Amino acid sequence: MSTPYADRRWTSPDGLSLYARDYAPADGPAKLPVIAIHGLTRNSADFDAIAPLIAASGRRVLAIDVRGRGLSDRAPDPMTYQPPNYAKDVLALMQQAGIERAIFLGTSMGGLITMALAAIKSRVVAGAIINDVGPEVAKEGLARIAAYTGQPVEIHSWADARDYVRRNNAVAFPDRDDAFWDAFARRCFREGTEGTPVLDYDPDIAVPIRTAGAKALVPNLWPFFRRLTRGRPTLLVRGGTSDLLSEDIAARMRKAARKMDYVEVPDIGHAPMLDEPEARSAIFQFLAEAP
């Protein structure tokens, strides 16, 4: 079966071979591309619903596998699994692909990477869609994610993989059927050498989190957020029942960035998949007005 994207690779500043799904834009006026960045334990497959739609609207989409995830190399030094290094990897992609500026679409950790990019090299960020994360996060949500990240898990079949992702994510997506969780599992696992599913990320991505300890659960990125939202279009997407981006944090973000667009996706936790009608509508309205 053919895919709607091409496979692209680029080289990180420290020599890793990294991967992106490259969705070609439909015909029409030239527009800035979208660079989509996934969350902590996920990969480019998380954008398999929204990326083709954005490409069909006339924007190239590069959905990346951050180092240590998916088809990107795993890092010899696990302490490089941190947002500043991820941001430098994205800058290397842009340089090697000849992209001077882009719209960034960041889910969870991808939103933090987008904030880091605005701090490191602000001019490359022409606009940003931040999905269910903020410059401050709720401890409960981060603790829940940290509890399973990098932990060993015995998976013997795709049914086991389905049950695993359901256990960890049912709080965000209640009342979903087996078909939903089967598709979810295929995004999070790959077929291992023995034919059984294995998680599609390096367990060592958890090393910096464990090393930082309690400090990792309360990052203060408000200066980065203010830098990101100053003078450029920004859209914040929040899951209505998110345990990572609380109502209070979202309200303070909106107060700090009064021109920022905002949409809440009802009955979804952390994090919306962005193919929900409310999210999709807000994203396309935002992109229609973006450069």
User: How much of the polypeptide forms β-strand, as a percent range?
Assistant: 15-25%
* Unreliable stretches: none
Largest beta sheet: strand ordering:
1-2-4-3-5-6-9-10
Sheet of most strands: 8 strands, mixed
Beta-strand segment tally: 10
**Rg over CA atoms:** 18 Å
Shape: globular
Helix content: 25-40%
Helix-strand sequence: EEEHEHEHEHHHEEHHEHEH
H/I helix tally: 10
* Mean pLDDT value: 94
Distance between the termini: 34 Å
How would you summarize the topology of this molecule?
Layout (H helix, E strand, L loop, with lengths): L5 E6 L5 E7 L10 E4 L12 H7 L4 E5 L17 H15 L4 E6 L1 H12 L4 E7 L7 H10 L9 H12 L8 H11 E3 L5 E3 L7 H6 L9 H8 L4 E6 L7 H10 L4 E5 L11 H13 L2
Helix pairs in contact: 2-3, 3-8, 5-6
Task: Output the keywords.
291 residues, alpha/beta, two-stranded antiparallel sheet, 10 strands
Short note summarizing the structure:
The chain is of the alpha/beta class and 291 residues long. The chain is 36% helix and 18% strand. It is globular and about 50 Å long.
Architecture overview:
The protein has 291 residues and is α/β, with parallel strands linked by helices. The strands form 2 sheets. Strands 1-2-4-3-5-6-9-10 form an 8-stranded mixed sheet, sandwiched between helices. Strand 9, helix 9 and strand 10 form a beta-alpha-beta unit. Helix 3 packs across helix 8. The longest helix is centred in the first third of the chain and has 15 residues. The two termini are 34 Å apart. The model has no long low-confidence stretch (mean pLDDT 94).
